[in-house]
Amino acid sequence: MRSRLIITIPHFNNPTGLMLTIGSINEPFSIDVIVVDDGSKNIFNERLVVSKYQNSGKIFFKYLKENIGVGAASNYALAFVKKNNYTHIGRLDAGDICYKNKFFKQLNFLEKNSNIKLVGSWARAVNNLGKLLFHIKHPTNYDEIRKKIYLNSMFVNPTVVFDVSVLETVKEYPREYSYAAHDYAFYFKVVKKYECANLAEVLLDYVIDVNSISSKNRKLQVKNRIKIILDNFTFGIYPIYGLLRSLILYLFSRSFLNYVKSKIN
Fold first, then answer.
1. Residue 262 falls within a domain, yes or no?
2. Cβ 88 vs Cβ 104: under 8 Å
3. How many domains does the chain have?
4. What is the pTM of this model?
């Protein structure tokens, strides 16, 4: 495998989750990690975090003086990547759990399919105790992803790996969505420019935490999603349905929707 991968992890007040995530990376090749702390009050111990890392790669740490939002913090990580000689970027969030050989499988897929520049995977959505809530199985085919991106993000953010060359066109996470929906805005731009895919395999446990940023900022997240759809709007079934769907989602709580998903999954 010729790829050189770095994983970016934005962190905010979740040192326990950060150590769990770092400890879950289990790959047969060296991987570097950059952790960007977004002005946390709950500071983690660098040595303890490094001690949890079983891989042979390096862990770099960047500390922001104040909380500027997960999207902006993620851009600091991308700036670091651009200055160094990496070929691919992975994304994880503190608390999520990687399955063994997750990144090996994704890089192997990208090397065999050079036309595809970004790949995610399926995931298990779990609560804080690791109990299964539902499975997330996004489309694997690019044509379907391109159509359905108007309905929702077609990627579980911490499952994604992409080619660094993507940043030549889509340079960073859009700054206007730093506190919510930054990943959706970013992937919308990527999908319009590059072929993307998802592996039809669960490779990560995705923690849905009621205290997470996405849960606390849910109204803003849906509001921003509506803005993103409008920014990319063209007349068609999926754009119209996606806009109506987001308007409905704005009216219901995330806990209610997760309950519905758990019953029909």
1. no
2. no
3. 1
4. 0.91
Residue 176: domain span = 5-208
Asked if pLDDT for residue 214 goes beyond 60, the answer is: no
Q: Alpha-carbon dihedral of residues 139, 140, 142, 148, nearest 10 degrees? A: 10
Cα distances (Å, whole numbers) of residue 241 to 164, 185, 209, 229, 236: 33, 18, 28, 11, 8
Contact 170, 190 (CB under 8 A): yes
Model confidence at 149: pLDDT above 60: yes
| Tens-digit pLDDT profile for residues 63-99 | 999 999 999 999 999 999 999 989 999 999 999 999 9
Residue 41, domain CATH: 3.90.550.10
Element (H, E) at 57: none
User: Does pLDDT of 218 surpass 80?
Assistant: no
Q: Is residue 199 part of a domain?
A: yes
